[in-house]
Structure formats: C-alpha cells, structure tokens
Amino acid sequence: xxxxxxxxxxxxxxxxxxxxxxxxxxxxxxxxxxxxxxxxxxxxxxxxxxxxxxxxxxxxxxxxxxxxxxxxxxxxxxxxxxxxxxxxxxxxxxxxxxxxxxxxxxxxxxxxxxxxxxxxxxxxxxxxxxxxxxxxxxxxxxxxxxxxxxxxxxxxxxxxxxxxxxxxxxxxxxxxxxxxxxxxxxxxxxxxxxxxxxxxxxxxxxxxxxxxxxxxxxxxxxxxxxxxxxxxxxxxxxxxxxxxxxxxxxxxxxxxxxxxxxxxxxxxxxxxxxxxxxxxxxxxxxxxxxxxxxxxxxxxxxxxxxxxxxxxxxxxxxxxxxxxxxxxxxxxxxxxxxxxxxxxxxxxxx
Length: 350
Fold this sequence. Notes:
Blueprint: H1 6-13, H2 17-25, H3 32-44, H4 51-56, E1 63-68, H5 74-89, E2 93-98, H6 103-115, E3 120-124, H7 131-146, E4 150-154, E5 165-170, H8 172-185, E6 191-194, H9 201-216, E7 225-227, H10 233-246, E8 252-255, H11 258-270, E9 280-285, E10 298-301, H12 304-317, E11 324-326, E12 329-331
Parallel strand pairs: 1-2, 1-3, 3-4, 4-5, 5-11, 6-7, 6-8, 8-9, 9-10
Antiparallel strand pairs: 10-12
Helix pairs in contact: 1-2, 1-3, 2-3, 5-12, 6-7, 8-9, 10-11
C-alpha cells in the first residue's frame, strides 16, 4: 500500500505543503477555514505522519498500545500487565484502551494510535471471526504497516496468514482436551460445557478440545452438551440456574472460563446442591481468585501475564512469520471429585 504523503494532502486541500505541516503540527496559527480544509483532506486520504520523521524532530516516543475488551476482567488485566512490564524493561511507554466489545471503539482507538505515531498496537483476546472482523483486521494491519508500525494479535489467530501481523496465543484446544480428560478420568461421563460462544476463536477451540476428549473416550456425540451463554460471572450464574431447572442428569460442568465457573458455583449453591458432592465444576484461565472460590477451583492455567510479555517481545524482535503458541496445564483443587452415582446409571432428575 503506497504511503500517502504531505504533498498528496496539500494537493487535495489546495494549499501549500508548508500550510499542511503547520496545521498538522499545530505549531503555528492557521485560519479556521484553512485548518478544517486540511483536516478533511487528511481524513479523506487516511493520512498519518511518518513516525520516523516525527521522531527526528523529537515528537516520536517508543509507545505500545494495548487494546482490551475490559480491564475489570482478571485475565485481560494480567495480559496488559505483562505487556507493560516487558515494555518498561525496554524503555517503552504503554497505553491501555478498552472497547467494551464495540468494533467502532476499537477502530477509533487503533486509528488514534496510528495518527499519534504509536509503534506497536496489541489487540487482546478471542473474538467472533466474521467477515466484518476479517475486513477490519486487514484494514488495521495494512494501515499500521504503511505507517511503519506493527500489529500484534494476542490470544487470537490471524484471519489471513498473508497479513502483516504477529500472533501469540494459547493452545486452547489442548487445554480443554486435557481438562475434559481429567473429568473423565475422575469417572464423569455426563459433562456439560458451560460458556460457548459460536464463532469466538478462543471458545470454539475449547469446545473442540472438549468434544475430542469425549470422542476419544468412546462416548457418542450426543453426550456432549454445550451451553452457549458467553463469558462472565452473570452469564454463568444465569445459564447454570436455567440448566438446573431443566435437567440434573449431568455430574460435571466445564466452564468456558473461571468467571463463568464462579457464576455456576453460585447457582449450584442457590439450588441447594453442593460442589463437588453433587456436581463437579472446572474452569479455564486460573485467575488469582480461583484458589479462593468456595470450593477452590480446578482449572486450566493459562499464563496471561506471559502472553502479554510474549506479545511485546514479538513486536520488539520484528516481523516473524510463525505464530507463537504458549502451553497450558491443569491445576487440581477441590471442585472436582468422583461422581457419587455410577457413571453408567440412567439419567434421572432430582
């Protein structure tokens, strides 16, 4: 993609290059109408100042922007902390922006960072990979690359291997496979996956791992039951309560993440049942509070802070075609036990 230059902006606005420079740097007074004309031309051409040229005049700092869905999630907070720690160790400044899951907010933030000469933008977390998302990422990647900046996808794959992006993620499928295997080894055969979100890159991989483990243990496909409630404590509590109102023939719940598990634990207690005596519960991510749940949560540990550090290290190293995949492992605590009734009993309700 050819870089739009200050000359292009000047020609479109019908002013001199010196005038464009004065408007964009803000160092000199410019008539309001002229300023508006230049800014309209710059936006229309998607112009961004060359960050290397800005650095020569002292304006460019080594900055990295981390874009998260939310900072209240322990997982996202730890990823951001990892990016900041690695950036600080190399003399970089780190900025954090949140989107609330709104694509327009993400677009606005990425564009702002590009205009400000940010050298690295890191997008964190799984997403629903639809056509709109694929088009958006392609736009980010090419625009940042044209501006001399880098895009890192942290916790999600690239929608196109040809895009100028760097990728670091967990092996979500392997982690879910291992946890489902752990539940099966404890004697469970009716295991519900609570927290699916069709199209979400991270959760789809976890569902694949869950189903693969069931199949490897000789269980028919219909045994697998996925509740598509998304993520979050409130979603887990609501979905678990609704499930318990309909059926109680399952003996274990594998939650899509630890916050869903927290909600499930609450709903199970409110239904007058006990974990793990009546129902075993497992989670994913091993957030710090998981050890303090009642009972303490068996979960898959994903090193969230290392994910952030690795994303920053990839950006510092420069372009690298191969995605970096981090491992995970099971942390066994008190929320999983053998089912009280034999695994081959006929399903029954209480």
